[in-house]
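Hey, I was hoping to borrow your eyes for a little while. I've dropped the whole record in just underneath, so have a look:

——
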Amino acid sequence: MAAVFPGGSTNTYVPNTAATNNMVVDFSRNVKSFSLNKYCQIVPVTKDVGYYTLMTIEEAGRILDTTMANHIWADGEEAPSDRGRTESFQFVPYQTKRYVYNFRLGKKAAEQASWDILAQHGRIKAQQAMTARTQLLITLITTGANWGSNTVAASSVPGATGKWDVSTTARTDIKRSINYAVEQIMKATLGAVSYDDIKLVISPGCARLISVSQEIVDYLKQSPESLAYIKGDTGPNAQYGLPAKLYGCELVIENAVKVTSRKGATRAASYVMADTVALILARPGGLVAPTDSNTVPRFSAVSIFMYEEMSVESKYDPDNRLERGRVVEDFAAAITAQAAGYLITACTG
């Protein structure tokens, strides 16, 4: 390099990150903010293989006639037969799988970085693990075959005539679909599931499409909070122009984003959940189920049996002078209460 005379900062200052107080622009997402936590229950398990007990739902609501003739016990008579008056059950297996999301950095790179690069990559891998957890569950619960008879195309709902994004005030296809699914859940669970337990789960794309349908526009226009919707002061779904609850169900927007392109290729990103499906799911209680299985019966539609959750590990490899880090999870996603959930397909498009 040729010698030069001082000429200002262009040749008298060696640029570095100190000028911005080592500012780091990053978009790592807090794992607690993932929508998955709102509609799925975590069930801690102590073994990676096991069973849970699934009861059928008949005897508790079996009424064979309106006069209860087969239950009358007259004085002096023997009690009616109790044979066959029990409920059936089955043991359903689960088996967790272990997943690792790892990285490595050279010793010099870790030592000389102007920020805590190891901690940052730990956060990045935690987000990757949570996105992967969401993808595994969404793949499971948006597959129609996994719901048995608890699935229907939007246009096949009784009284409906088409898809949600083109629904009108007269058609009310969105309302009909949601009410129909909830009614099927109520019947299947003998009323054990209430509206307070139910979540309506859709993608941001689906939310964007239905928010401009005539049905929803008129629904919000006639609301006393219509001005708040325009101003965006309506709670968690304000950015989509939708209320916190839609036709009685808490509305959850599954907004996890995945990158599907390999490193170095043209970036391709999309939402984990498709725009064409909607899920009606019961998720009573808190995020984590009680460890005592005898406390109360559980009827969360979807659960994750968690053997190991978000273990963040780091280790220095002196032989290769490498800093190694990883996030480990060991779990199994399952539809634990099929009766408490419903899949609606072909909602938009």
In short: The longest helix spans residues 117-141. The chain has one domain: 26-56+88-345. The helical segments are 9-12, 36-39, 107-112, 117-141, 173-188, 204-211, 214-221, 226-231. Residues 48 and 198 are 29 Å apart (CA to CA).
